[in-house]
Amino acid sequence: MATLLLAIAGVYGVMSFSTSQRTREFGVRLALGATGRDIVGLVVREGLALAGLGVILGVALALPLTRVLRTLLFGVTETDPMTFVVVSLVLAVAALAACYVPASRALRVDPVQALRID
């Protein structure tokens, strides 16, 4: 459970930083006619792409490491497909939830404020 919370915090932090750095881009997109759905879709898609890459790399590294940890596994085989699928899906849903907050914050960007030169 603690690792899931750390994963959510990490994805949220990266996506929040990314969206805050792209405030002007979102302002331009909104000024040129992009809808809120477009902005949210863009941010969520990028977050899920990063999470998907992480899940793929994690599964690829976990498969050979399970052989090392075989003595610690009780009640499942070392390459139990259901365990890998369920954990991957939980992480994908957690990443989606962690991406939604920065995406909804990106919607509140006022195009005039975003384009103002400081």
Spell out the blueprint of helices and strands.
Layout: H1 2-21, H2 23-31, H3 36-68, H4 81-107, H5 111-115
Helix pairs in contact: 1-4, 3-4
Low-confidence stretches: none
Distance between the termini: 43 Å
Write down the domain tally: 1
Q: State mean pLDDT (0 to 100 scale).
A: 83
Share of helical residues:
over 70%
Largest sheet: none
Helix/strand-derived category reads mainly alpha
Total count of strands = 0
Number of helices: 5
Helix and strand sequence:
HHHHH
Shape: elongated
Beta-strand fraction estimate: under 5%
Rg over alpha carbons:
19 Å
Overall description:
The protein is mainly α and 118 residues long. The protein has one domain. The protein contains five helices and no strands. The protein has helices at residues 2-21, 23-31, 36-68, 81-107, 111-115. It is elongated. The N and C termini lie far apart (43 Å).
